[in-house]
Design a protein that fits this description.
Strand 4 and strand 5 form a beta hairpin. This protein has a single domain, classed as Hotdog Thioesterase (Thiol Ester Dehydrase, Chain A, Roll), CATH 3.10.129. Helices cover about 20% and strands about 25% of the residues. About 45% of the residues are buried. With about 375 residues, it is of the alpha+beta class. It is globular, with a radius of gyration of 20 Å.
Amino acid sequence: MNAADVKRRWPDFDTSDVDRWVGVPLGGGQMKEPVTATDIRRWVQGMQNPQALYWNDEFAAASRFGKIVAPQSFAVCTSDSHGAGPAIQGNIPGTHMLFGGDEWWFEGPRIEPGDKITLERMLYDYKVTETKFAGPTMFSRGDTSYLKPNGEVVCKQRSTSIRYRAEDARSRGVFAETPEPRWTADEIAAVEKHKHEYYRTFLDLGHGRRSGVEVGQKLPTRPIGPHTIATFSCEWRAFLMSVWGTFRDDGGASSLYQAGWLPEMSRDLEAAKLDPTLGDGLYYGPSRGHVQAEYAQLIGMPRGYGYGASMGAWILDYLNNWLGEHGRVLHSDMKYRAPALTGDVTYLNATVTDLVDAKRVAVVDVVMTNQRDETMAAGTAELQV
């Protein structure tokens, strides 16, 4: 699809500036310092993932790795834009973006303390379609490759961004009638009990290998929540990009900060040299809607909502936890359909649908829902067991 195709159907949705970025190697932020064990610990804490391999020195020392390593989800933490920067290129005035999904290909090596990850980026493609949420909406896909210091590829992420005119989303109010639930003390206690039962399913595996995998087998349910402004804030601060001065621009071409953001959702990078909160993203900028209802409503959400990058991490952690330290995710392709809102509880479930490669690879269907049984995300993954 190109701008001419779009203009024929949606004359006032101009993607002409996007066309010039497709297939162009992109610049952006690169990590200044190597990953530390504390970065990994802060990540799993923010993602509410108490897998001991990623934070407990004694447990990690007895593992096959012999030390703390990062979960596969941690790759996105080493990006300066949740891996979505390549999918947010070209200026479309008055627009905002949400995460539409992530596809991951993992090559094998784990990120570990001492690694300084380098990013390579490119806008892959885009299409525009009519959505109930916002009318004409662009789904653009961008690729980020994550490389170790020796040039070894850790993984590649193909992120989908949903770019839409915020005014159209506000007027349609798709999520406006979604009430914030009120949980009783007994209901919260039941959720907490369910979480602990889930944690036990992978902590009891210890350093063992997942065995006896069969087609039709269901993975244990993972509950997360209820989500709050506090949990969303902790997620944000787990990302290295949220720490002032962590990344250095590599000088390559990019239009990420000139993508047509609403003034309220823009960063003031010049003023941020004096006051870094103005370039922070959460205090001021495109992520403030996640934790401030006023700005959530500005872009078509009813109240504080979660991060697409966190949803992707929850899924990868869920699969990694079930596999244990001897398995790994080979490929994951997930589509995000609805946000995690404050007050909601998220549930992850998966089913083994096939065993291939002499039963060494399990194919699983994954679905993420909330307490209203609405589908938040879904997709398939291939797992080395």
